[in-house]
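ugh ok so i messed up the first submission bc i forgot one of the chains. this is the corrected input, ALL of the components this time, i swear. 400 residues overall. if the numbers dont match what u have on ur side tell me asap before i send this to the collaborators (the ones from the other lab, u know who)
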Amino acid sequence: MRQINLLPTVKGNAEKAPIHSFWKRFGILAAIVLIASVGLAWVLRIGLADLEEQIRLAEIRRKAMEPELKQFQDLANQRNALRTDLQKINEEIDKDFSLNLLADLNICPIVEQITLSIPEQVWLKSLECKVEDRQLLLEATAQSEQGMKEFVLRNLQNQYGENAVTLGSIQRGGGFPPTVQFDVTIHLRQRPSPSRCPKEKESDGNSAQPVPRCSGETGSIHSIPDVGIARIFRHGLW
Amino acid sequence: MDYGNVQSANRTKTLKQTLEEIQFDIQAQSAMIEQIPTLRKEIKMFEEEYKSLQAVRQQRMALLLACREQMLLDVLRGESPDRNPLQEFRLQEGASGGVLAQYLYRVELKGSYQEMIALLRRLDESPCRHNISHWILTAEDEDGDTISGSLFFRLYRESVPK
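and heres the new structure output, hopefully the right one now
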């Protein structure tokens, strides 16, 4: 029987077994992953440190702003308190010291103005002034409707403004000569608030109206000519 | 290591959020601080307005309180009591409340036009002109010889604080 040697015949340098390509790739990939992971960790650590530094600086900045912020809050509180005080004093002035209480509608100038505007054919019966409402109520008799219209539409409306004068009831008398009894309401202009009132005399161009003054005077009675008031009586208007 | 990286990433996210919040706070606070000069101006303006309103209040109070009952009576009576249209002077009602106590006086007049005008002029010249709340003048006869009038005054006194 013949013997066959199955063992390698050449002794000495044995051939190395070849590395499978899978392991090669796996090794490379593992190395890449490892490097990437380490790199990422490094980048993240740097980023974190940077962020922490930024936060530290921001906190310092925020803290440095605190005194100014407190100042702002104090000023805001002071402003709000002042605003409340202003509202309070305004309400008090309106309630307890309103201009209506100090309407400052002197009697003589009003009487004088009305009398100057009364034509011959009109007789004044009564004159009433609701000072707080700034309303003037006038009761009069006219010889004719024409005379009444002339007085109301021309004289009074020219003097006090078209919207300020309202003609009330009209009653036609049956006597001889026939007369017309009527009443008129005049809304006197509101005086401007002294707090916002300029020092100089104000005028809106309507020179016929009494000029409101800031000093608290409707008009000096010394400037009124006697003839105005006397005329009512001389002509028997009262 | 990956777990550590994930944790670092999460912390980065949190820190970024914190930083954003702080920056937002800083922006808001800066905006507030920028308003300080405006606030100062506003306060100055309000203070001036308050001062002027206080002056108005004082002035009006002084005007309202200037006319006292005796002064009004003296003005109405004038210097010649025999030729005076004053018929009646009476306290109609009084009410306290608020800063000032208020008293409503009613005055009845009747007389010739000269007497009436003289009285009204005295009134217009006196501090009591501020206290007239309502007045009516009526012709008593067609000749206009006699005029009657009713005048209503509001006089004030400072309320005593409770």
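quick check: The CA atoms of residues 134 and 190 of chain A lie 7 Å apart. that seems consistent at least. Residues 21-97 of chain A form one domain.
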